[in-house]
Write a structure and sequence with these properties.
It is a single chain. With 481 residues, the protein is α/β, with parallel strands linked by helices. 26% of the residues lie in helices and 21% in strands. It contains twelve helices and 17 strands. Helix 11 crosses helix 12.
């Protein structure tokens, strides 16, 4: 693949017009040799006022009077990542993951906005009252901006509109058992009802797409062998479920998003449906793009997730689909648990991979090896997820967007030490791996939330600091608009 890190056209982002008398003065100017903008990657200075980007200027543009200037040198400035698939589990299972630890890990990984899934918290986010409970648990405890998905379960299908009106970004459902009893799946009849209801108010249905009949027909997983677990979640389960979703979406004129697509065999279904006008999008995850079934040791249930990590050839096909746009987004599906739930038996261990802090580095490591550039990664992990969620003020370094930025040293490497992660439980499939790309700093609406303290004009930032546990939370709770 060719890189999209081509120089931006000269004058692609013109200098701003003279500032009107009521426009905010530039408060912050961030300089770097590599700034990833919608027009390409180039040396630039990002002007910030009131938490928003006001202009993208030449790198050596003079600083306005009174502005604080931070020079990130040869590092790359990417738009802050938007992760639309995160399980925080707070309240109720905060010992698995809570808002403070999850959002601190997100910030350390260059993520500035995340959307929390409606399970595995207690209660799940399936009514306006339960959404209020979620928000109360998160309020004043988040280090990045946080929004919420609602849930579509068998007993709330006649109450989805009030949850939509309360500000959730869409509705998640399962077609097969979710792994927790309080969030049951939708059968085919209820799936059709949910889709018709959500389509009536132009909502978004996001779906864990594995067909229960295909899963029931597969051998049940028992014991430590990864090959047995892989056989229990066949590609046919994803293929059948996605075929049903596409058919119903076409019938009801609904917007549907396929979560954590793992099976490359289902990709033609999505491409064909989209070509015929069906409003279907899909995502995949860092672990599906960077890990393979062949390398999973028996008993290593830190690699267990549903759907599963598949073979190397399947991974290559997923990369091709990310490159050509069949897969829209790359998001974490951060689904953590306590270490004791990762027993060395694939039939009984909790299925989920904790990777919130590592996704950018993991994807960049593999993307660079395949000839992709920083602009590609920014599109997959910031711009496209922001578009999916309707967050028009996020996901790009451009005037009018929030001043959310990830400062990445693309050439630096590090070895993953679980003890150095901010996740509540240090369990990760990436332990011991050497990854490329170190997040040196993260900015949220013009405030540095990871890295060294802001420095005065004429100084330079040298490196960052992931040990930011003492910083007060500055994230906000956001709603669909």
């Amino acid at each position: 693949m060719t890189s999209t890190d081509a120089p931006a056209p000269q004058g692609a982002t013109p200098a701003p017009a003279p500032r009107p008398g009521n426009a905010p003065a530039t408060e912050l100017l961030l300089r770097a040799d590599r700034v990833v903008t919608p027009d390409g990657v180039r040396p630039a200075a990002v002007a910030v006022a009131g938490g928003r980007i006001t202009a993208v200027l030449p790198r050596d543009a003079p600083a306005p009077p009174g502005a604080c200037v931070v020079d990130h040198g040869t590092a790359a400035l990417l738009p802050g990542l938007v992760d639309t698939h995160v399980h925080i589990n707070d309240p109720g299972r905060a010992h698995w993951e809570g808002f403070p630890t999850a959002t601190r890990a997100a910030a350390a990984g260059g993520i500035t906005t995340l959307l929390d899934m409606p399970l595995n918290s207690l209660p799940p986010t399936t009514s306006p009252d339960r959404l209020a409970t979620k928000r109360a648990a998160a309020r004043d405890r988040v280090h990045v901006d946080v929004g919420f998905w609602g849930g579509a379960v068998p007993d709330n299908l006649d109450r989805l509109r009030p949850l939509h009106d309360a500000g959730v970004f869409g509705f998640k459902c399962f077609l097969s058992p979710s792994g927790v009893d309080e969030f049951p799946p939708l059968d085919p009849e209820r799936l059709a009802r949910a889709m018709a209801e959500i389509a009536a108010f132009d909502g978004l249905l996001i779906v864990h797409a594995e067909d229960p009949a295909q899963l029931s027909a597969a051998p049940a997983p028992t014991g430590p062998r990864y090959a047995d677990f892989l056989a229990s979640r066949p590609p046919a389960a994803e293929h059948a479920a996605i075929a049903r979703l596409v058919e119903l979406a076409a019938r009801h004129g609904a917007r549907v998003h396929v979560l954590h697509l793992s099976a490359a065999s289902a990709l033609p279904l999505i491409a064909e449906a989209r070509a015929s006008g069906v409003a279907v999008t899909a995502e995949t995850c860092p672990h599906f793009l960077t890990l393979t079934a062949e390398e999973v040791p028996d008993g290593a249930t830190e690699f267990k997730c549903c759907p599963p990590i598949r073979e190397a050839a399947n991974r290559d096909a997923l990369w091709a689909a990310v490159a050509d746009g069949t897969l829209d987004c790359v998001v974490s599906d951060h689904s953590p648990c306590t270490a004791d739930l990762k027993v060395p038996d694939f039939g009984h261990a909790w299925g989920g991979i904790a990777s919130l802090q590592l996704g950018l580095s993991a994807v960049w490591t593999a993307a660079a090896e395949r000839g992709h550039g920083l602009a590609d990664v920014a599109r997959w992990m910031a711009t496209a997820p922001a578009r999916l969620a309707g967050l028009d003020h996020k996901g790009a370094i451009a005037p009018g967007r929030d001043a959310d930025l990830a400062v990445l040293d693309p050439e630096a490497t590090f070895t993953v030490d679980p003890a150095a992660l901010h996740h509540r439980n240090p369990v990760t499939a990436y332990a011991g791996r050497t990854l490329r790309g170190v997040v040196r700093a993260t900015w949220l609406r013009g405030t540095r939330i990871v890295g060294e303290d802001t420095v005065a004009e004429g100084a330079a930032v040298v490196g960052g600091n992931a040990d930011d546990a003492g910083r007060p939370p500055t994230g906000r709770l956001i709603e669909r608009t």
